[in-house]
């Protein structure tokens, strides 16, 4: 299931799987982990995960190297991602999370840019149209999962650039 | 109890008391008979009876130390405990152990008495010292000095003046200077650094008599820097204490440590110690210091703790 995913050099470096006590070293280590998690999830089109899954996933468990990142350290990596805006906990117990390789604000920006470019301000779209419509096939946000899309639109809503509305049985959005 | 009959064949009957509950193991655990009958076909019963009653009265076997030799074939001599086989050996060992135990308890009795007395002495000296402090005018300076020196010789720190070097005393200052003499060469031989335990052993071996207590050693070492001596005491984050030559720069050692680790890819403290010729304790401190400075990073797994060059910093 590894596909053509290219692991970074750190993945083959045993110390990568030990939380470093030196503060500066740890900073670099965590940054590398965050970046790895995001690119892994992006390639595998994984938008959500449970902590249990994460522990056993090749992401944190390098079988060949015989090293796995201990669960306490995984929690620390996830917290870093949350602080950066790339992760959201889906439950109170912090057992499963939404992972967004691009932050919602960034997605919002891309969507709004497309809307403006194609002169479709003041139009209404269903959520499905945005991510699966013919018109958006060439766009990066094509195929985006609903949870992330919603958060992207919420971010635009905050900026008064969009409004999430009900369209028929589902939801849609109006862009300003 | 003995019985003497006048029959043709003389007999002596020895009646036995019942076995005590703490009877030591012997050839027989128990017997259905409560007496021993001794028959004398020819003669000898009178002499035997005399000797036997003598021994029964004297009970010499209760006071005599157990014989050290294990000659089980030897004919038993009157008065000696006959030690036969394993049982005999066990009995002897048990006796010896009891004896040792007793000696140790007695010795410690004296020591606890001594400690009580010592405590009283210290209290007394302290109270006198305080009196001196208060009534400085009533006592001549000469007497004060003499008393202070008595206190010092008993190991009580000078209570009257505040030492500029903290808790140090004249004694510790002298000691610190002495240490330089003893340690200079050994330090140079060991790459300029030694753990305090190594120093303790070395110094006491050198002194032979008048051994140093650990506290005195530590207090003396604490004054090395203040006295501007060529040695210094250093305490690592882990709490490990070492003595270094002033000229020794542990930080400079880190560069070579990094080189060594890089050459081998990764090293444990033990591997590093062996390569460099250091004690494992000091090797670990050096590696930890290198990690603290960012030159190394660690891999902590079931395989143990290994140190690697810190590629997180050096690689993109």
From TrEMBL, chain A:
GO terms, molecular function: protein homodimerization activity; structural molecule activity
Localization: Cytoplasm
GO cellular component, one term: ESCRT II complex
GO biological process: macroautophagy; protein transport to vacuole involved in ubiquitin-dependent protein catabolic process via the multivesicular body sorting pathway
Pfam families: ESCRT-II
Keywords per UniProt: Cytoplasm, Protein transport, Transport
Family in the record: Belongs to the VPS25 family.
Protein name: Vacuolar protein-sorting-associated protein 25
Gene: VPS25
From TrEMBL, chain B:
Main location (coarse class): cytoplasm
Protein name: Vacuolar protein-sorting-associated protein 36
GO terms, biological process: protein transport to vacuole involved in ubiquitin-dependent protein catabolic process via the multivesicular body sorting pathway
Family: Belongs to the VPS36 family.
All copies of domain GLUE N-terminal, residue ranges: 1-68
Nucleotide-binding recorded as keyword: no
Domain of life: Eukaryota
Alphabetized PANTHER family for the sequence: VACUOLAR PROTEIN-SORTING-ASSOCIATED PROTEIN 36
The keyword Manganese belongs to this UniProt entry's keyword annotation: no
UniProt cross-references to InterPro entries, sorted A to Z: GLUE_dom (IPR021648), PH-like_dom_sf (IPR011993), Snf8/Vps36 (IPR040608), Vps36 (IPR037855), WH-like_DNA-bd_sf (IPR036388), WH_DNA-bd_sf (IPR036390)
Keywords for the protein's UniProt record, in alphabetical order: Cytoplasm, Endosome, Protein transport, Transport
UniProt source species: Trichechus manatus latirostris
Primary role: Component of the ESCRT-II complex (endosomal sorting complex required for transport II), which is required for multivesicular body (MVB) formation and sorting of endosomal cargo proteins into MVBs. The MVB pathway mediates delivery of transmembrane proteins into the lumen of the lysosome for degradation. The ESCRT-II complex is probably involved in the recruitment of the ESCRT-III complex. Its ability to bind ubiquitin probably plays a role in endosomal sorting of ubiquitinated cargo proteins by ESCRT complexes.
An annotated GO cellular component: late endosome membrane
Subunit and interaction comment: Component of the endosomal sorting complex required for transport II (ESCRT-II). Component of a complex at least composed of ELL, SNF8/EAP30, VPS25/EAP20 and VPS36/EAP45. Component of the endosomal sorting complex required for transport II (ESCRT-II), composed of SNF8, VPS36 and two copies of VPS25. Interacts with VPS25, SNF8, TSG101 and CHMP6. Interacts (via GLUE domain) with ubiquitin. Interacts with RILPL1 (via the C-terminal domain); which recruits ESCRT-II to the endosome membranes. Interacts with ECPAS.
Cell location: Cytoplasm; Endosome
Taxonomic classification: Eukaryota, Metazoa, Chordata, Craniata, Vertebrata
GO molecular function: phosphatidylinositol-3-phosphate binding; ubiquitin binding
